[in-house]
Amino acid sequence: MITPPSPVVLILAAGRSTRFIASGGALNKLQTPLCGLTVLDHVIRAAELSGLPWHVVREADGDGMGDSIAAGVRATPNAGGWLILPGDLPLISAMSLRAVAEGLGSALVVVPTWNQQKGHPVGFGVGCFDELVQLSGDRGAARIVEAHRADDQVLMLTLGDRGTVLDVDTLDDLQYVQTLMTTAGK
């Protein structure tokens, strides 16, 4: 029996960090040190620990999340789906990445939630390829999720991982995440 390809974790790292720098951050937020690693390296480490293939999107044709998603999907056309993971979620767990990937076995789109908040990574099956490669601008893939929700092809997956929703957009966010990591001993 042939095993289908695994979904690829697309780590979005092409943003300019304008909100982070405006809040007092000195560097691009993804390159900012956080408990011994950069913010981005924490996300990459979770992807590595998940056992799933992963790809970092560092450049895109435009500045928006949609541009980054399209670039990542184009770079991994033979993937068994895609988990869209912004690079500013340093608390994301490998277990959550695997759970979203497994959810793609029963749904075309998987949206993780924590405490009734939608989070990341959002998983997309291979049937979304054409829609994903056409994305551009800041909106990301929200309209694709909504279109497939109308077709009852979206799984809302409740996870016990605050890391799916806790991103680093400002210096205050970074300090909060650092406090959580220090308290948890990470």
From TrEMBL:
GO terms for molecular function: nucleotidyltransferase activity. Residues 47-148 form the MobA-like NTP transferase domain. It comes from Pseudomonas helleri. Transmembrane segments: none annotated. It holds the Pfam family NTP_transf_3. SUPFAM superfamilies: Nucleotide-diphospho-sugar transferases. Keywords: Magnesium, Transferase. This is NTP transferase domain-containing protein. InterPro entries: MobA-like_NTP_Trfase, Nucleotide-diphossugar_trans. Gene3D superfamilies: Spore Coat Polysaccharide Biosynthesis Protein SpsA, Chain A.
